[in-house]
Design a protein that fits this description.
Elements: E1 4-11, H1 16-27, H2 29-34, E2 38-42, H3 50-59, E3 65-69, E4 73-75, E5 80-86, H4 89-99, E6 109-113, H5 122-129, E7 136-139, E8 141-148, E9 154-160
Antiparallel strand pairs: 1-2, 1-8, 3-5, 3-7, 4-5, 5-6, 8-9
Length: about 160
């Protein structure tokens, strides 16, 4: 039996994608090959009732989401690096509440180095810190994506945001 995972994702749009992907390709090529830069909106364990989730995505008049990002930080005992959201937590939470019932606390971020398949060092982090990242990104669609474990993520469906 092939194991599959589903997520709702906000892919980083152009023109911001290239800037972020340069860092991901250089310092975390394995993750870069699996999925483009994104903000995870809902993880697989939050969208178990996929019919209801899709119904909510289609029937709601969901608005685009602008996320403001801060300075890069290390996480997972310093192994990973992410670009954290700042000052947009309420709109992110509101969007999640419109899609899923009882969402847990989940903070918006873009993972630059995933600790599952990369290791950040002080030298690498210094290089990433000196990179210029976008301060604000506006997302205009939600993607339902699927991954067969260990394979590239695939977009199953797109839901435009107004």
């Amino acid at each position: 039996m092939i194991e599959k995972r589903l997520q709702l994702t906000l892919f980083v749009p152009n023109p911001f994608l290239e800037t972020i992907e340069k860092v991901r390709a250089k310092f975390n090529p394995e993750q870069h090959q699996l999925i483009d830069a994104h903000v995870t909106l809902c993880r697989e364990d939050e969208i178990t009732d996929i019919e209801n989730v899709i119904h909510n995505l289609k029937r709601q008049n969901l608005e685009h989401l602008s996320i403001h990002f801060g300075k890069v930080i290390r996480f997972s005992e310093g192994k990973g690096v992410l670009l954290p959201a700042i000052n947009s937590d309420e709109s992110f939470k509101k969007l999640r509440q419109q899609i899923i019932e009882s969402p847990r606390n989940h903070e918006a971020h873009i993972t630059l180095m995933h600790p599952r398949n990369s290791r950040c060092t002080d030298e690498i982090f210094s290089q990433i810190e000196n990179h210029e990242f976008p301060e604000t990104i506006t997302f205009n669609e939600i993607c339902l994506i699927e991954q067969e474990i260990g394979q590239q993520w695939k977009v199953l469906q797109r839901f435009p945001l107004k």
